[in-house]
């Protein structure tokens, strides 16, 4: 089982899209002080996630969402899942 997910940082007012096989551990990693985009803030929270059967499917869904390049579309996806 794999996940595609969207995180949000209130301090940066930014979204991050990713995929993983272990969502809890991945979020912990994002919230550590490390090099990379999410390392700039310690307040990332899961706003949306989707379970997919394979790593390839999760990666394809991640790329699809990233291709939107639209904060508004990401917000609509999050809102539609509630």
Structure keywords:
29% strand; 3 strands; 82 residues; globular; alpha+beta; 39% helix; GIY-YIG endonuclease
Please describe what this structure looks like:
The chain is α+β, with helices and mostly antiparallel strands and 82 residues long. The protein has one domain: 3-Layer(aba) Sandwich (GIY-YIG endonuclease), CATH 3.40.1440. It is built from three helices and three strands; from the N terminus they run ββαβαα. It has a three-stranded antiparallel beta sheet with strand order 2-1-3, sandwiched between helices. The longest helix is centred in the last third of the chain and has 14 residues, at 55-68.
Shape: globular
Helix fraction bin: 25-40%
Roughly what is the average pLDDT, rounded to an integer? 96
Query: Could you tell me the number of beta strands?
Result: 3
Question: What low-confidence regions span 5 or more consecutive residues with pLDDT below 50?
Answer: none
The proportion of strand residues reads 25-35%
Task: Give the second-level CATH assignment, the architecture.
Answer: 3-Layer(aba) Sandwich
CATH homologous superfamily (4th level) name: GIY-YIG endonuclease
CATH fold annotation: GIY-YIG endonuclease
- What is the number of helical segments per DSSP (H or I, 4+ residues)? 3
